[in-house]
Amino acid sequence: MSDNTLLSAEIKKLQKERNAIILAHNYQCPEVQDLADVIGDSLELARQAQKTDADVIVFCGVDFMAETASILNPGKTVLMPAKEAQCPLAAMLPPDVIQVAKEKYPDAKVVMYVNTTAAAKTYADIICTSGNAVKVVESMESDEILFAPDKNLAYYVQQRTKKKIIPIPNYGMCIVHDNIKPEYVKTIKKKYPNAKLTVHPECLPEVQEIADHIGSTKGMMEYVKNDPSKEFIIGTEEGIIHRMKKEAPGKIFHPINPLPTCRNMKKTNIQNLYEALLDMKHEVKVPSKIADKARKPIERMLNL
Ligand code: SF4
Measured from the CB, is residue 14 less than 6 Å from ligand 1? Predict the structure, then answer.
């Protein structure tokens, strides 16, 4: 038996003893995805975190995701095996930037991407994910929307609404998706002319414009499963291809070259997952003063 098989068996045993659920983002490495009870995008995982009966939530993802799970479950223990896995995009929105924008646009509502810190979320009217951003914006009463922090997602939303989208800050972006350059995509398209191109809305506008489909990771999963095409070019973090191969067998998936890899998503592995469950360590706790304020805009989204 390999070390990984032994560790996986130990994790399953501990999981039962602790009454724990393992949630993993679509970008996690294959070994972690294979151990998870639920694999999904931020919205799916937030919903699971809200409705689980488990006493312990083991969150395999990055900081803001585990924080969101903790905010929604103040009575539960949320563990993050790789405590140092931080999303650089979330770090691009310090609260003072929002405060300045709010003063400049006093009538605007603040729609904030889930990829933000708990402290930043306390300034939001509502949270959104890439899967529901347009719907969330459309649900707001104001015609002016301060949209934070991803400028490419802001562009995507602006193409689909008549409301005025004001990106804050105007340089916010996911370093992984923003680095998928149009020339990389064009080269792959030339190599595989029959493949459909599906991309994430955190990609650059020039990449969005040449795509056959744009969607959240959940949307991309559905697209490759339901579209009759046999071949796809995947414009997002490469981790999702493992899940696509499992759930859409017989189809062919081409990653972008150079491979878009989120270093932070890959910090979780089965060793630190095992250690977190064994020692009940790396607990994520959001101070109640912040959590109580941040919970409202998250619940507003979940209730939409
Ligand atoms: S892929 Fe981008 S948005 Fe997602 S965690 Fe990594 S840096 Fe953050």
Answer: no
pTM of the shown model = 0.95
* Residue 159 identity: Q
For 3-85+265-286, CATH number out of 3.40.50.10800, 3.40.50.720, 3.40.50.970, 3.90.1150.10 equals 3.40.50.10800
Distance CA 254, CA 297 (A): 37
Residue of 25, 63, 87 to test ligand 1 pocket, by largest number of atoms within 8 Å of CB: 87
The residue whose CA is least distant from atom 1 of ligand 1 is: 262
For ligand 1, atom 3, the nearest C-alpha belongs to 174
User: Which ligand 1 atom is nearest residue 115's CA?
Assistant: 3
Q: Is 148 in the pocket of ligand 1 (CB under 6 A)?
A: no
How does pLDDT run across 174-230, given as a tens digit for each residue? 999 999 999 999 999 999 999 999 999 999 999 999 999 999 999 999 999 999 999
pLDDT tens digit sequence for 93-140: 988 999 999 999 999 999 999 999 999 999 999 999 999 999 999 999
Q: In angstroms, rounded to a whole number, what is the distance separating the alpha carbons of residues 158 and 144?
A: 11
DSSP helix/strand/coil, 254: strand
